[in-house]
Design brief:
Layout: H1 2-29, H2 34-39, E1 49-52, E2 56-59, E3 68-72, E4 77-85, E5 89-94, E6 97-102, E7 106-108, E8 131-135, E9 139-142, E10 151-155, E11 160-163, E12 165-168, E13 174-177, E14 187-189, E15 193-198, E16 210-215, E17 220-225, E18 228-234, E19 247-250, E20 253-254, E21 257-262, E22 270-276, E23 279-280, E24 287-291, E25 306-309, H3 310-319, E26 325-329
Parallel strand pairs: 16-26, 24-25
Antiparallel strand pairs: 1-4, 1-7, 2-3, 4-5, 5-6, 8-11, 8-15, 9-10, 12-13, 13-14, 16-17, 17-18, 19-26, 20-23, 21-22, 23-24
């Protein structure tokens, strides 16, 4: 009948969108449409301005296999001339260059727009929160956290150590890493060590760029760069009879090795060939340098220089420069 046929047609017309809608919902819930939804994150009307959320290519066609015309950096802005095409591509005018870019790295520049931070937050320095310890009794220094690792050397009771990191051996016993690259790995069992005091840190922004802090009371040297400690190590500075000059000084000259002679014959005379990596920070001859004639860092024992382990002195030499501030103080 004509009426029933009309009703049947009407039913079909109404049912079609409903079926399509249900199909779309099932498709989206099942995750099959996730990629297409993700691809059209941006809604950019023609005539609006879009900004990049990551470096984004501008192509001659709305596809990533097209010819690359330009690369828009993070937070670059471009005028929207058309789109979206091909699952979310937009036609843009970026500083006079017209091309297509994917909407997944574009956002609308409006009252809610906030530029993406250009740099991720810097993680905290691994050299913060260190402690100086002391061996309560003599013991071996091992190449790893465990008694079954090779012995590097032995240290005596009272030897100062810088506690860089705690580690567990296979039995769950605690060890401390007491060396830092480029030194060879060295570990001491925690049961042999008593903590003495926390390393004192200064305002790293006291001077710009690179500078060195020499704390005489702690016998700790800290390298600061752009406000952060980038190397912390034990040192041996001048004895009470030959103290290290205090004050704000700077690296005046430096060489990869030098013979050092001084002291009083019969009293404290020394003649040391090939002292590694001296960096002289005042006119009296005091320097940061490597040390091969003793292993008693953490205690004053020099004629005024700042003694460092040879590997660490090399690091300071390669990192430092003439004119770099060296602040010596209690």
């Amino acid at each position: 009948m004509l009426l029933s046929g009309h009703q049947e047609g009407k039913y079909r017309i109404m049912a079609a969108p409903l079926v399509a809608l249900l199909a779309l919902m099932i498709w989206a819930i099942s995750g099959l449409g996730a990629g297409a939804v993700q691809a059209q994150q941006a809604t950019l009307p023609i005539g609006s301005t879009g900004a990049t959320t990551a470096p984004t290519g501008l192509y001659d066609t709305p596809a990533s296999d097209g010819k690359l015309l330009a690369t828009m950096p993070l937070n670059a802005q471009a005028k929207v001339m058309g789109g979206p095409f091909n699952e979310g591509w937009y036609w843009l005018d970026y500083k006079g260059t017209k091309g297509y870019a994917p909407g997944k790295t574009l956002v609308l520049v409006d009252g809610n727009y906030k530029p993406v931070p250009s740099a991720t937050p810097r993680p905290p320095s691994p050299y913060l929160g260190l402690w100086v310890g002391e061996l309560a009794k003599a013991g071996p220094v091992k190449s790893g956290p465990g008694s079954n690792t090779s012995t590097v050397k032995s240290w005596w009771a009272g030897r100062r150590v810088l506690l860089y990191q705690e580690a567990k051996d296979s039995k769950g016993a605690a060890w401390y890493r007491v060396s830092d690259p480029p030194e060879v790995p060295m570990y001491v069992q925690a049961s042999l060590i008593k903590k003495m005091f926390a390393v004192k840190y200064e305002d790293g922004n006291r001077w710009k760029g690179k500078w060195v802090n020499v704390n005489l009371s702690q016998q700790v040297v800290t390298a600061y760069q752009n406000g952060e400690p980038v190397k912390v190590t034990l040192a041996s500075t001048g004895k009470a009879s030959t103290p290290t000059n205090q004050g704000v000084q700077s690296i005046q000259w430096r060489v990869t090795s030098r013979r050092m002679v001084g002291g009083t014959p019969g009293v404290d005379y020394y003649d040391l060939p090939n002292v590694p990596y001296p960096q002289y920070f005042n006119s009296t001859g005091e320097a940061l340098h490597g040390t091969y004639w003793h292993d008693n860092f953490g205690r004053p024992s020099s004629h005024g220089c700042v003694n460092l382990s040879t590997p660490i002195s090399k690091w300071f030499y390669e990192w430092g420069h003439v004119g770099m501030v060296v602040w010596v103080h209690n």
